[in-house]
Design a protein that fits this description.
Blueprint (H helix, E strand, L loop, with lengths): L14 H4 L1 E6 L4 H13 L4 E5 L10 H7 L3 H6 L1 E3 L2 H5 L4 E5 L10 E3 H11 L7 E5 L8 H4 L4 E4 L11 H20 L20 H17 L11 H11 L4 H26 L21
Parallel strand pairs: 1-2, 1-6, 2-3, 4-6, 4-7, 5-7
Helix pairs in contact: 2-3, 2-8, 6-8, 9-11
Length: about 290
């Protein structure tokens, strides 16, 4: 059995996330338990329950610890139970994850609907959610499923819908997190903490025009642009760059590329003619066009 823990709730856990538990029925592979712990922690959940594991010491097995990969605290806090009914405990809404359609049992829903229903349920202060997953080989029994209020499906490829149990748990945890973040008052995107990156600001028109002129010179230097037969290359190139609203950093990056192109063309010209390239990177722009093979 697992060691006793001092509290059901991690001290820094958001209350709404702490009211969701993930239950693995009769797990047999320690690696899946470790992967499940990692999946739970990455999505901000903390409550992992095992029902009648094949190995009573499964939480301490090397494979479990290795695949938890930083989520060892979830394994330490995990509880084992003799029956699913005991593991469900105070849960007010339980979802039985299964790949098979069930003729008898609770009403079905998909995993996204389950997350939405859970968010609505957790608006109540005493609500508790349980996500129940079966054994690696046979899934949940009918007896397990009738203890839950909903049957839940992941809309996978119908020709091959067999998900590893820890992968299924990861998908469930992700959907739950996405649905619960607004209730927890948390953002769905990383926070920059108001740090501003000036390089991401749109480049000014003057800087873009200077870059376009530099880019045209680079195309001449490497022989991509034939000044005698330019056709529509230059206006199309200008339209492409202007349409994409380059940032200041992107303009600098393109200009660095132009400088490197011109420098390389100058070195190639020097090797062919024996001339010595000038110290200025853009000095090679004045290579005669007949020597650029344009």
């Amino acid at each position: 059995m697992t060691p006793p823990v001092s509290s059901d709730t991690p001290p820094d856990a958001p209350d709404i996330f702490d009211r969701v538990r993930f239950i693995m029925v009769s797990p047999s592979h320690p690696g899946n338990v470790g992967s499940a712990a990692r999946a739970i922690k990455t999505m901000g959940f903390h409550d992992l329950r095992l029902v009648a594991p094949a190995d009573p010491d499964i939480l301490r097995q090397p494979d479990a610890l290795a695949l938890a990969s930083g989520a060892g605290d979830i394994l330490k806090r995990a509880r084992t139970h003799a029956t699913l009914a005991e593991a469900l405990g105070s849960a007010t809404l339980a979802f039985a994850l299964t790949a098979r359609a069930r003729a008898i049992g609770p009403p079905p829903c998909d995993i996204r609907e389950a997350a939405v229903q859970s968010a609505a349920e957790l608006a109540g202060p005493d609500a508790r959610i349980a996500i129940v997953l079966g054994t690696e080989r046979t899934g949940l029994s009918n007896e397990d499923i009738i203890l839950c209020q909903r049957v839940c499906h992941i809309p996978a490829n119908p020709a091959y819908s067999s998900l590893n149990v820890s992968q299924a748990l990861q998908l469930a945890a992700w959907e739950m997190r996405y649905a619960l973040l607004p209730l927890a008052g948390a953002a769905r995107l990383p926070d920059t903490h108001a740090r501003h990156d000036p390089g991401s600001d749109p480049a000014s028109g003057e800087r873009v025009q200077a870059m376009l002129e530099h880019f045209e010179r680079a195309l001449l230097a490497v022989g991509f642009l034939d000044p005698r037969h330019p056709k529509k290359l230059v206006p199309r190139m200008r339209q492409m760059w202007i349409r994409n609203r380059l940032s200041a950093d992107e303009v600098d990056m393109v200009r660095g590329l132009c400088t490197a192109m011109i420098r390389s063309a100058g070195h190639a010209y020097a090797e062919r003619t024996g001339a010595r390239p000038g110290p200025d990177a853009d000095e090679h722009e004045h290579i005669p066009s007949t020597d650029r093979h344009v």
